[in-house]
Input
Amino acid sequence: MNTENLLKELNDVQREAVLHTEGPVMIIAGAGSGKTRVLTYRIAWLMLQGTDPFNILALTFTNKAAREMKERIAAVVGHSEAKNLWMGTFHSIFARLLRIDGHMLGYPSNFTIYDTDDSEKLITQIVKEKNLDKDLYKPKKILNRISSLKNNLIIPQYYDNFPELREYDEAAKIPDFKNIYTAYVERCFKAGAMDFDDILLKTNELLGTFPEILAKYQDRFRYILVDEYQDTNHSQYIIIKALANKFENICVVGDDAQSIYAFRGANIRNILSFQKDYPDCQIFKLEQNYRSTQHIVNAANSVIANNRDQLKKNVWTSNETGEKITIYKALNETEEAHYIAERIMERHLTYQMPYSDFAILYRTNAQSRALEEQLRRKNIPYRIYGGMSFYQRKEVKDLLAYLRLAVNPHDEEALRRVINYPARGIGQTTVERLTILADQHNTTLWDICRNAINFKNELGTAPAQKVSDFATMITEFGVRARRESAWDAAEHIFKASGILRALNDDKTEEGISRLGNVQELLNNIKSFTDTQLSLEENNDISLDYFLQDIALLTSTDQQDDGEPNKVSLMTLHLAKGLEFPVVFISGMEEELFPSSQMVNTRADLEEERRLFYVGMTRAKKKLFLTFTHMRMRYGKTNDCEPSRFLDEIDDQYTELILPAFHRSQPTFLSGPAWGAGPANNHSSGPFAPIGTSRQKTPHLATRPSSTASNALPPEKPQGEILTHTVPGDRVFHEKFGYGNVLEVEGSGVNVKATVAFDQAGQKKLLLQYAKLIKVKP
Ligand SMILES: Nc1ncnc2c1ncn2[C@@H]1O[C@H](COP(=O)(O)OP(=O)(O)OP(=O)(O)O)[C@@H](O)[C@H]1O
Ligand SMILES: [Mg+2]
Output
């Protein structure tokens, strides 16, 4: 694509924002208004103007988003140029930076990245060693607290500078928190490991302590671009600010109405601070939505208008009016899932829509089970994002632990995990003794292991020998990891560690599936080695690089198996930045969404509402919102009340559908009629107390949902729905209008009719779903 064509694909404001390359720029704009597109085109434009890709840094919310942007840019400027861009999540970019310069802070360049599971295990271990009450010092709680301090750049040494921290911890009955935090930080450091938050914290420390390193990166990153700026936390904010300080060519894009990570420390005030930091910054507002139909855009606007804290924006679209938003009241979660699966199947067959056009979003991961079951029953392929990832499976983590040890044997969590797996006679007592020795000698577990022969007295002769043999094996793995490709080293380690044998011996169904998973991991390593050579500029095929790569996958990246034709299932949080032709948001019920934990303050409730706004604005053509009358939660069936958010959608954009069991004629109602189901008592207003339900006046029945064009749909004729038909029949279809049947094929549920529609042209439809009505010719 040449320069001219590139700019043609933008509207006036977008183009201006792309061309304004020098100086600070902030683009605060509504959902689907082309923020990400502007960012992508800006990079392409910079490169077309001769900017060296080495001088561009782009920060995205997921690695997948970065990859897609890179591909788009490559199409404009060429693959070999695009390769050299530094583009990715904050974590992957700054981990890369720390690999290069982290040694200044005393880290090895092959430092390990601890995942949440590793961190929690380490905390459990520390709590145990300190003889603290494990019911009070819960690892998750402690880790959240550590994370929040780290993201505010409060290291243990600063803890006492803020008396309110101690007050908080005492009130939370964790007075020894500081000791745990201190020990945790020391242990990670000794093990040559960083947790996720360290990646940002240590980058800050590095840039703040060494002016020459800061200067190096300031010079390198002449142009800095940040997507989803509304969800950056303090630590990220400080990094960007430092890096941009010299050239001030910084462009941030975001939408305050989509800020949904406050619970993880994201700070919406970063948007306001930006204006303060760069008083001469240029601000662009994009208001035209290119993604969604008018009904969807307007409905989303009517919801977000209920938030008090927001920057004024007027999001509009010139897209088609589109179908109304369907609100479906189900009996329970099974029936809800069934309804969703049916609608997917119906659209897939009737309109030939690929499965990848559909997304099902929910508030909590637990909701996916019922949905999965119904999708499986209909053989609808799907992919779940988030939840338990492949890399968290036990057997996968076991092999990974060996690989991690090969790269960094000081990695304490990996060592604890496999020192006696597969079983090699190193018991719990021996491990405890090793831990005490490490503590006494102020060194790592690994240092004790590799010198185990010198600790025969403390360990006993036989255990010392076993530990020593284990250490010899790990040392040998290390040699290979340095010399061989990731694939060669991993394959060897898989066999020599005894994992292959252990899994092979287990002939249970579960054992076979475990072996399959480990083989899948090896396949991943193989394809990493193969593709790495062609994709990245550094051609690094080492095990070290592979481990780094997977440690930083985000939840949206993890499940991307490259298979394109699947329905996507994910939480609303993960859906940020994505778009799908058809979106279902399930579980639109009080207590679930808004979550019962998020209704106590206005700020929390507004964050939930923004989350709903994010969900709604993912849909391009059609949005379904479903809620249930009853739902099983925590093993109990509860009565549910429709979400207050449903009330907030302007009636004119919705239609309510009730399931067959409490539906008399007609099926379609315009506007909400939540009370129409059984067992509802009526009170009103958006904040009706939990346990009562709200009702708005149901509107009169109208015709079926509108068509995809602005023209009024043809009036639906009376007549029975055809289950079989013959060529020559004159028929009516809800969406395509009138037509003549040309051909019929297949049998039973697979009967397909080819129909020549007067307006819509020729279509092949599955009779079971097409709901054709026979009319007089
Ligand atoms: N000028 C344009 N012409 C045609 N299509 C456009 C234009 N600008 C954006 N789009 C399309 O509109 C959709 C939304 O764009 P994009 O994802 O960049 O929006 P966004 O503001 O980043 O959305 P979100 O707030 O969800 O992150 C995309 O499919 C994009 O290709
Ligand atoms: Mg975007």
About this structure: The two ends are 51 Å apart (CA to CA).
